[in-house]
Amino acid sequence: MIYGSTEFNTLLVEVIRREYRHPHYKEAVRLAEEMSVHVYGNRPDSLLKRVRPGEDEEIMRYRLENFEATTKAPCGKALKIVSKMFNPNLSSIIFPKDNKTAEALKEYTMYYYPVYNSLTVFNKDVTLKKMTADANALMAVKPQRIPRNDAEKVKPIVTIYDSKDVWYWDLDHFLVNTEIKRIDSRIVYTFEYYDIERYAKFQAEAPKDNEPAIINLIEEYPHNFTDQHGEKEIPAWKLRGNSLSLNNGDVLYESFFADAKAHWNLSIIHESDVLGAFVKHMNPQRVVIGEECSNSKVVDGITLKCRGGWLQGGDATGKGFRTKCDKCDGTGRVASSPYEDHIINRQKLDEMTNMSMDAVGYVKVPVEATKLLADRAKEMVHEGNAAINMLIEDYVGANQSGIAKLYDRSAQSDTIYDIGCIMYDVHFQNQFYFINKYMNGVSDSASGKVTDQNLPQINKPTKFNIETTGELVLAFKDAAASGVDRYFLQAKQIEIISRDMDTNPDLKKYYIMLINLDPLFGLTQDVIDLNMMRGLVYKTDAVIHSNLKPFIDRALAENREFMNLDKEAKMAILKAYAEELITAEKPQIDMSQIPDQNV
Question: Distance (Å, rounded) from C-alpha 379 to C-alpha 266?
């Protein structure tokens, strides 16, 4: 259905007046609401208002008003781990060279993108969190502002709409509600609209049944995007997540963290119950021994005394009066305030000598169940993390075997890879594709240039540096002790240095050079001496190995470009230093002191 057609206007009336939505609207909104609790910390009323056996209404109100999102932190930690996919050392976006249009596209998307400076930052800060919370949300590319004339260039931006705002969509269009407001007696709806021909923003209202919608166009930008096969395209797509195949063949999406949702929900429920239990412990029910009410009151000159909760009496004619006692509220017993001393006379105290309870006390509330519930709330957080392969971050240590670490790391990498495929193969690709279309489609078409030639090559990450530096060091130690090849150890040590010194590129480059230029890396001095005796090692190599750092420091001092030389040139300089040292250490014989044998 295309904007402006009779079919579209009929649909718009149904959408506004009868709340007609696309077939999977309710399910998409439900999935988003359930995950937003953990991603954004929204209050889950549906969970907190579930009936608790024997719970007072005041306790439930207290739980609701004092809710805190305890699962937001573990979910946020998992998102931080997943965000490793944006590490520039693991992925790359390479633009074509000798292409001025591609260079302009690179500058806009990677350095001057509105608000976030680059699309990478936008996807890390916004898209990743949003697709985790609302997998059926809509991502679209639109002009930041409609150009006022032909000379003004379009600045495209990426926008994400919640699934609850995507009221209707089909293969030809997306209809998104962005505002509902009342003007006098009218209700006006604002929509943003994407179809195969245009982006538009308009207001609409349906004043009466059986009448067409009143539409006021605010802005419009025709694009007429087509792919390489000439098929028309809509610059909008779903965020996606785990696919849910429905019976009718349609596909709905749930969060990549959906497997943790059940455990995190239980953690919220249990934590709320623990909060209610703590309140009861802090304000326990008071138990007192009630004394017979002795209240009396004079009404119309007649003294009324409390008898069983009722003020009763009569006049001389026998006329009686009976009213509810205002002191004991009809119970016939009274007790002191918990903030006052409860005084019992001696006679009553003597009468209670055989009783097994104190005159005043409090109900002893058992705390064992509350402790168990608090522990279970924490356990559910860990179970949720385990469901999405993020538990290893909480349990990395000596107690975990190497095989378990390897398995957990592999599972965690698989989870990040699955999310990374959507991020790089769908979102990055579509963002660059449509931004390029908006910016260069018309001019490239006029000059006969293929617009897609401006697009970058996007290389998604396939391996993720999840391990900490400490773990890498321990792994290196184990590998060295197991006797693996020294060249493998050399590569692993470079990996450790690259990770630990990532924020200091000059120092990282220096130490990596030290390792690469060591001709006898990994060999002990005893092995080196033995191999020299056997003639298996050059003496110059042994000298370089023993004096590697001072040799390199000398080379850097003499030649500032030493670090930029190729390895062969560097080794030639180091060998010259080694031969110089060997020559200097050779014993010199004074031939002048030896007699001439010919004399």
Answer: 10
Distance, C-alpha 247 to centroid of its chain: 31
How many Å is the maximal CA-CA distance in the chain? 172
- pLDDT value, residue 127: 96
Is the Cβ–Cβ distance between 308 and 294 less than 8 Å?
no
Q: Identify which of 133, 414, 86, 72 has the alpha carbon closest to the alpha carbon of residue 257.
A: 133
Least Cα distance to 32 among 159, 129, 176 occurs for 129
Which phi and psi (to 5°) does residue 423 adopt?
-65, -45
Token digits of residue 386: 């385990």
Give the other-Cβ count within 10 Å of 293's Cβ: 22
Query: What confidence tens digit (pLDDT) does each residue in 494-551 have?
Result: 877 777 776 678 888 888 898 889 998 888 888 888 888 888 888 899 999 999 999 9
Spatial distance between the Cα atoms of 171 and 156, rounded to a whole number of angstroms = 23
Q: What is the pLDDT of residues 329-369, one digit of tens each?
A: 777 777 655 444 445 544 555 665 555 555 555 566 667 77
Side chain identity at 297, as an amino acid letter? Answer: K
Given a contact cutoff of 8 angstroms between Cβ atoms, the answer to whether 164 and 42 are in contact is no
Long-range contacts: 449-455, Cβ < 8 Å, 24+? 449/101, 452/228, 453/96, 453/99, 453/102, 454/95, 454/96, 454/99, 454/101, 454/102, 454/105, 455/102, 455/105
Helix (H) or strand (E) holding 104: helix 100-110
More confident residue, 284 or 402: 284
| Tokens standing for residue 253 | 């999406």
CB neighbourhood size of 343 (10 A)? 9
Q: pTM for the whole thing?
A: 0.70
Question: What are the backbone angles phi and psi of residue 306, rounded to the nearest 5°?
Answer: -75, 125
Residue 247 pLDDT grade (very low, low, confident, very high; cuts 50, 70, 90)? confident
